[in-house]
Write a structure and sequence with these properties.
Blueprint (H helix, E strand, L loop, with lengths): L2 E7 L8 H10 L8 E7 L5 E7 L2 H8 L8 E7 L14 E2 L5 E9 L2 H10 L11 H11 L5 H11 L2 E9 L6 E6 L4 E4 L5 E5 L11 E4 L4 E5 L4 E5 L3 E2 L2 H4 L1 E2 L15 H7 L1 H10 L3 H11 L3 E6 L1 H18 L2 E6 L15 E6 L5 H12 L3 E6 L5 H5 L2 E4 L12 H20 L5 H36 L4 E6 L3 H16 L2 E6 L16 E5 L8 H11 L3 E7 L3 H5 L3 E5 L4 H8 L1 H13 L18
Parallel strand pairs: 16-17, 16-18, 18-19, 19-20, 21-22, 21-23, 23-24, 24-25
Antiparallel strand pairs: 1-4, 1-10, 2-3, 2-4, 5-6, 6-7, 7-8, 8-12, 9-10, 9-11, 11-15, 12-13, 13-14
Helix pairs in contact: 3-4, 4-5, 8-13, 8-14, 9-13, 10-13, 10-15, 13-14, 13-18, 14-18, 14-19, 15-19
Bound molecules: 2-deoxy-2-amino glucitol-6-phosphate.
Amino acid sequence: MCGIIGIVVSKGAIKERLGSVLRKCLKNLEYRGYDSVGFAIINWNNELIVRRSKGKIDEVSRKLGFDDYDGHTGIAHTRWATHGKPSDVNAHPHIDCTKKIAVVHNGVIENYQELKRELLMKGHVFTSETDTEVIAHLIEEYKKKGIGTYEALKEAIRHLKGAYALAVIDKDEPGKIFFARNTSPLVIGIGKNEGVMFIASDIPAFLEYTNHVIVLNDGEIGFITSSQVFLEHINYGIVNVNERIRVVDWTPEMAKKAGYPHYMLKEIHEQPLALSSTLAGIGSEAHKLAELIASSKYVYLTGAGTSYHACLIAEYLLNDLVGIKATAFIASEYGRFRKSIARNDLLIAVSQSGETIDTLMAVRRAKNKGAIIAAISNVIDSAIPRESHIAVYTRAGPEIGVAATKTFTTQVLLLTWIIIKAAEIKGELSPKRTSEMLDLLKKIPDIVNTTIRITEPSARKISSEIALKTNAYYLGRGLAVPISMEGALKLKEIAYIHAEAYPAGESKHGPIALVEEGFPVFFTILSDEYKDLIIANIEEMRARGAWIITVAPKDHEKAFSISSFAFKMPRLEYWAETIPYIIPYQLIAYYTSITRGYDPDKPRNLAKTVTVE
Ligand code: AGP
């Protein structure tokens, strides 16, 4: 939630104006929130200029003339509102009473009301409803003791409760950006050219300028100048910066649209490549996790949204292929297992971003109870992998579209690989059968490639009819249930059509009451034990006038003969079908969103990474 960028430059180090570089970098963070935008720049005369407004980056930067401003030190912010509605006054940066200090923040300050009361009593004047504004006034207040901005920020931090990634500039100390991190992500980018330094919420922000990064840890605080990074831990002292620099292998092209109208479509089409990269990246950590699973009595899996759906698939396969009891739970519902998660239980936390606060909190709570934590993530060194005992990466490349697509299929591929290996280690699969199954997984990138090519025209065609509907059901049995849930989530989040997923057998226990002439019902059928049983469920829906759309193996004539629309899919083994069978649903959601005139990359009320509980 919320994107932050900060840049310090020395004279002549970059050709463009600072305002324009800030705008470009901020645009790469738009997936983190987009209800209001603002920047603060210290210009070459050392004056502080602050501009902010409600709206998305393109519109606001045109209105405020972002690109016209130049200077040496600047911070900018794209907001996803938590405290205070989206409005001009609630947009960041927030400033203090002296109008010298500007602050951008991602996170939530839990004790801001208490701090605000104290500051009001001391005579501070607030202009917004946000929690962030207290930080600017707190720094101002501590500076009155005669200390510098950095010391004042340190003091302020000691009084803040909650989550924050902060970037602060002060007209009294031009040429520096002060920062602090607790729970919300923050990364430093060391400019390739001498004299440029970045700080941002996420690496894609500055990837065009540098791939040399320092991922900050919780409790870290410091400042950057155009040529230097000063970093320390609030409790443990100075950090050796050189030891922390990492070189990421993402290219700026990977984070751009590459000619597609939307990131989401690009990311759908990138799946064959992303899946190949997941397979190529499988190494010792994946093997270690397979061994851990094989030696566990009980496995928990947790995640949110799409990542939770990947957990559900893994739960099913752990039971089915390894014979291990497994339970997937929604991370924010950790309380259900608070008492039962015990020392040495294995918890697999799945998170594309590695920063989702619900998942991070479940990890922390289970870790406190002595559980062994394994992370499956796409972002190297993000919070969840860092706080886990073992981390395995999907290596799908940056995902910018708010709707998860390539990160879902790569999560499922990676988990399936690990589970097959665990089954072999446990003696549930022979080495011969294991290598047959792994060989099939190696073919998945090609199969997905063909699936996209074959299903895209049909998805586009059917989307014009789906766009006219207000509700839809997604039904399946067994492993097809999480696929249905993921399909329904995609349609809901980007096409704003109410969609619900159920186990098909459950629909007659209530949901069928809603079905009337033309009600769309998507059936997912895999090559498993349910493939014939589900026919009765299709008939029940058809008898009530439902409009049946079926995604099933291409030779399932029976199913197609009673459906109004067919997606004829490759017939594989059921456990490998999960990956290609989600493709038509991703495409249907995308084209329906476009037909209805929405922007699938920026669904309303959503942010790519949810860093509030
Ligand atoms: C999926 O399309 C979503 N935008 C959302 O449900 C997402 O999967 C969820 O917020 C979890 O994110 P994570 O994988 O980064 O933890």
